[in-house]
Every structure is written in structure tokens, then in C-alpha cells.
Amino acid sequence: MSPSEIPNHCDTGIYLLGAGGHALVVADAVLAGGRSITGFMDDAEDPALKNLRLSDNQTPARLSGLEGLDAKSLAGKPWLIGLGDLGLRRALIDRLYAAEEDLTSVVHPRTIVSEHAVVAGGVFVGPGAIVNARARLLDHAIVNSGAIVEHDCLIAENAHIAPGAVLGGTVKVGNDTLVGLGARVLPGVTIGSGCTVGAGAVVLADVADGVTVIGCPAVNR
């Protein structure tokens, strides 16, 4: 089925763009929250979602690949990017910007998200994560399993806070930045756009755009 043939219907099922390991985690959160997955789109020959069992013991439909997908194809259909690679995600975001009004977000029911936090469209918050008061998660941000985003943090568009990472209060993370597994960022630090914070790094000072930092304390690689 081509993207233009995706059916419109009143079901609130989500269309996942991507079907690898990260999409499987997102799909699990979707189902745990009582929502449904209408189908997925992926270019892989052996997508991880192909054997996912839904509540009615069915598998989600493989609707198409991602190649050629455009914003018009998604009009009126709730969708979310299920790819983990930030570069691939950015390419899709840029291509589908006109469909942003149909973005949905997925927050696993086993999370703590303050009622005073702001969660924009296309956001994924994984199991065990904590997002505290006045934190802001902008479009397509990921706060992955067990990560902690403290009060007044800003997680910009398409940034990924990896499993187990901890951000102190008022931290700012720029667009398309990865804060790696188990990293720690001290309160008040600003990390620029297009950055990578290595797994386990401890970031004590601001990081300029496009820089990779590793270690404890974190230094430029």
C-alpha cells in the first residue's frame, strides 16, 4: 500500500515512521497506554515491528516504506517518528514539516511527567523517565527510558536524552543533540545544537554547537 492509499478513519491509532529497535520501544509504550498502532512505515527488509502482537493478536500493517513519503500522505492521521538515528529523524522532519499539525506524542504510563511540564508534538517519553515542573520538551524530542529531566529544563527539537541520563535544573539542550547513556549534566549548563555527549560523561560547563564531549569531567573529543 502506497502512502497515498493510507485509509482515513476515526480510529486514534498511530502511524509509526520506522520499525526498528527504537520503534519497538515506542510501540510498547503506545500499547501500554491503551492506544493502538494502525501501521508502520519502514525501508528495512526485516523490520522489528513485523511480529509485534497487538491487543487483538494481530500484527500492525506494513503500510509502505519511508521513501517517497510526503506531508500530504499523513494529513489527518496521527503520526510519530519511531527512528532513533537523529540524522534520519531530521531528514523526515524537514520533509514532513507541513504535516506537523497531525503530530502525536507518546508518554509511557510508567513515567512521572509534571502537570506543569510542557510536552509538544512528536515527543516520546520512555518508561521510568521523570520530567519535572516547568521542563519543556519541544517537537520530536526523546526522553528515553529512566532518564531524568529536572525542573525548568529545555529539550529542543529532535534532541535525544538517552536512557539513564540525568539533567539538573535549568539545563538547555539544543536541536538534534544526543545526551548519551547515563550522562550527567550539571544544573544551568547549556548544550548547543548538533552536539553529542558521550555515554557516562559528566558535563560541568556549556558546550558549543556541533561539539562532541566525553569523559568525567567532559572535554572535547
Structure commentary:
This protein is mainly beta and about 220 residues long. It has two domains: about 5-100, Rossmann fold; about 105-215, Hexapeptide repeat proteins (UDP N-Acetylglucosamine Acyltransferase, domain 1). The chain has two helices and 23 strands. The protein has helices at about 20-30, 85-95; strands spanning about 15, 35-40, 60-65, 80, 105, 110-115, 120, 125, 130, 135, 140-145, 150, 155, 160, 165, 170-175, 180, 185, 190, 195, 200-205, 210-215, 220. The protein has an eight-stranded mixed sheet, covered by helices on one side. The protein has a six-stranded parallel sheet with strand order 6-9-12-15-18-21, with no helix packed on it. Helix 1 (about 20-30) links the parallel strand 1 (about 15) and strand 2 (about 35-40). The longest helix has 12 residues, at about 20-30. It is globular. It starts with 13 loop residues before the first strand and ends with a strand. The model is unreliable at about 1-10 (pLDDT under 50).
